[in-house]
Each structure stands twice: as C-alpha cells, then as structure tokens.
Specification:
CATH topology: Rossmann fold
CATH architecture: 3-Layer(aba) Sandwich
Radius of gyration: 16 Å
CATH class: Alpha Beta
Number of strands: 8
Strand order of the largest sheet: 3-4-5-8
Structural class: alpha/beta
Oligomer: single chain
Helix content: 40-55%
Number of domains: 1
Number of helices: 5
Strand content: 5-15%
Order of helices and strands: EEEHHHEHEEEEH
Length: 176
C-alpha cells in the first residue's frame, strides 16, 4: 500500500498524474484529485491553461511532459468524452513509454457542479496496442468502474481503493 511514498521494502514515489477531459469532467476530476491519499500533479488554473493552449501543440506537449516527470503513475479519469482525445491519447502514450504505472477510473457517476452524472464513456485504452504481439492496452491496464450509481458511494469506493489501484498499476507496468 502506498504511504508516504513507500511500500514495504520498496521505495517509490507516490506522485501521480491525472488525465481527464477538462471541459467535460473538470468538476468530477477535482473530486478524485482532492481525495488526498496521494500527491498529484500541479493543476493549471484556467488562466494558465489558456496561456499553455495559446502556445500551441509544442507548449501543451511540454507542459504534459513536465507534469508527468517524477510521477509514478498516470490515472486517466474516464468520462463520457475521454476516449480518442488527442492530448489524453498523448498522455497515455507518454506514460506507457516512460514506464509509468497506468490505470483508469470511470467517473461518469460522480456528479458535476450542477448535481448531474453523465453517460459512461468508452475505455480509452482500447485504441492502443503494445509490444511485439500487439496486445490491446486495455488487456493490460485496469479501468476501474465503481459499482455504484450514487455519487457519494462512488467517491467513497474510489477513496477506499485508490492507493491499492495505483500500486497495482505500477506493479503491472514493471512486469511488462
């Protein structure tokens, strides 16, 4: 279990990178990011993000790269519109190629700022193959779907399992 950046007998960083579709899932993502059991990447304010986007693709890629640096795991928060987005795909590719733990959490049943859930999105790992055998990434990377429709129960389920999921993602990546 991750705690203070260590597991029994193994030292590892506990910092994680959260990947999500900003305009659709910012509120839901902030709920997960604020669970507080692990250190997360620094979020860009709306003003900062606008400046990054105005710098073009190179600026966005550089920002993502700097945010992923030093992280042990990338967590894709899967909403209705997460799969097949250019920068989420880049974050998945970058995390995998940098040998970081990688996992997903479906967040469609967490309520947004208006109190509404959304529809479940596609698994963003389905569109990737890895290795010489061209294994579909979703066969290697877990995408956890909390078994509740109630937003508070979904939040509680994620809170109770997040550290273990991260540890499993890191172990899985280290074994492949």
């Amino acid at each position: 279990m991750l705690s203070s950046g260590k597991t029994v007998g193994v030292e590892m960083p506990s910092k994680v990178f959260y990947s999500f579709h900003h305009s659709s899932d910012e509120w839901r993502a902030s709920q997960v990011q604020n669970i507080g059991t692990v250190e997360r990447n620094k979020l860009a304010s709306d003003k900062d993000w606008d400046a990054i986007k105005n710098g073009g693709d190179y600026a966005i890629q550089s920002w993502i790269d700097s945010q992923l640096a030093g992280c042990a795991c990338a967590i894709v928060l899967i909403g209705q519109n997460t799969a097949n987005r250019k920068w989420i795909d880049y974050e998945i590719t970058k995390a995998w190629s940098d040998r970081k733990g990688l996992m997903g959490i479906y967040i469609h049943n967490l309520k947004d700022s208006s109190g509404n859930p959304s529809s479940k999105g596609e698994n963003p790992f389905d569109g990737f193959t890895v290795g010489v055998n061209k294994k579909v990434l979703s066969s290697l990377v877990n995408a956890y779907d909390p078994p509740y429709a109630d937003s508070s129960r979904v939040y509680e389920y994620i809170s109770q399992n997040l550290e273990n999921w991260i540890e499993k993602a890191i172990e899985t990546r280290n074994s492949f």
